[in-house]
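Question thread 4412

I'm putting together a teaching handout and wanted feedback from people who do this every day. The idea is simple: show students a protein as raw sequence, then show them the structure tokens that encode its fold, then repeat with a second protein so they can compare. Below is the first pair exactly as I plan to print it.
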Amino acid sequence: MDLNAYQQGARSTARYPDVGANPIYPTLGLCGEAGEVADKVKKVLRDQEGNFTPEVRDALKLELGDVLWYVAQLASELGFELNEVAEANLNKLASRAARNVIGGSGDHR
């Protein structure tokens, strides 16, 4: 699926206060959903000895979809297309790899 097509489809389901002028709501939602992903992974380590069963993988796929939805909403609120965000990320990573700083820390390396 094309990322911009996903973003447009996701936007049609957005129901939160001041859609179009509220980057705070999707930011908080993104944090919450990312926490749910982390919690499910934590429980795999705690309860299933790191074994990602098909059921756990399916649950994680749904949670990752929720993360993606909030990323799409935040991008929309900020006036970005997801394709643009993805391309910028790949360019950043390629630059870091070319300069052999992909494993370091800091935003501007």
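The second pair follows. I'd like the answer to focus on this one:
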Amino acid sequence: MSDRRQRIHSLVLALLAHQSDLELLEDERSGPGGHPLGGGGDPGSWLERNRRVVQRYQSLVRSAVTLDALIEQELGSDQLGGGSTSG
């Protein structure tokens, strides 16, 4: 795994750890007794709920990518601005 990908992965895990009400995706069999859509539930509400859950995870990933880019930018400006270098 590349260094950048590993950093983003770590940032996503850190962001997830700070979520108090983490939701997981549900499949159509997740209703009582394992019946599809909870034994007559509305498939539209099931799809809408899962869409919201996916959007929340996408937001966390975008946040991690943004944080990583900001860190890279800061590191780059420190090096360009005369920060310490080994040599």
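Top answer:
Good format. For the second protein you could add a caption like this: The mean pLDDT is 83. The first helix runs from residue 3 to 17.
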